[in-house]
């Protein structure tokens, strides 16, 4: 009948149908193997747990994520507050030790410059002599002093200005 209408032998039709059936059987076997693997993975995933305990685990993990987000926000606020406070703390230091008098040894006198981020602060000068120790403080504004600085005080100030570069 096919030969009359289509010019195709029935043998070719039967062989074609057998090839299609063989292909479908192979696809079905592949599908069964994949389903078997999926069932094994699902069994491992669900082993020892019921739906309620799995839901509890997920809810617990989501609560942990929310807590981490809150803690991160609190940490960022604290870091911002610390950076604002640091601007006013002393961040730059310069220390020069020297002998104030020729007869004194050991470099017991010193000049200490302490500056904040804006180069505001002070220079502390301690002069040690046989009679005692005298300290002087000179205010520093924007890296400069209104009062003339001694050589050692200027060296301490310069060291402080260079310390944070």
Automatic annotation (TrEMBL):
Query: What are the alphabetically sorted keywords of the record?
Result: Membrane, Transmembrane, Transmembrane helix
Chain ranges passing through the membrane: 12-33
Q: Which organism is it from?
A: Roseburia lenta
Q: What is this protein called?
A: DUF4446 family protein
Write down the superkingdom of origin: Bacteria
Q: Which InterPro entries match?
A: DUF4446
């Amino acid at each position: 009948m096919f030969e009359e209408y289509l010019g195709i032998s029935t043998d070719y039709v039967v062989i074609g149908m057998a090839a299609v059936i063989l292909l479908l059987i192979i696809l079905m076997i592949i599908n069964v193997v994949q389903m078997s693997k999926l069932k094994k993975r699902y069994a491992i995933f669900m082993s020892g747990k019921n739906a309620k305990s799995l839901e509890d685990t997920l809810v617990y993990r989501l609560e942990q994520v929310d807590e981490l987000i809150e803690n991160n926000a609190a940490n960022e606020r604290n870091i911002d507050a610390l950076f604002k406070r640091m601007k006013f703390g002393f961040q730059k230091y310069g220390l020069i030790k020297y002998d104030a008098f020729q007869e004194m040894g050991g470099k017991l006198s010193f000049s200490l410059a302490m500056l904040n981020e804006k180069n505001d602060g002070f220079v502390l000068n301690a002069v040690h002599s046989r009679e005692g120790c005298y300290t002087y403080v000179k205010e520093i504004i924007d890296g400069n002093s209104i009062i003339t600085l001694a050589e050692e005080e200027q060296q301490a100030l310069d060291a402080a200005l260079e310390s944070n570069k």
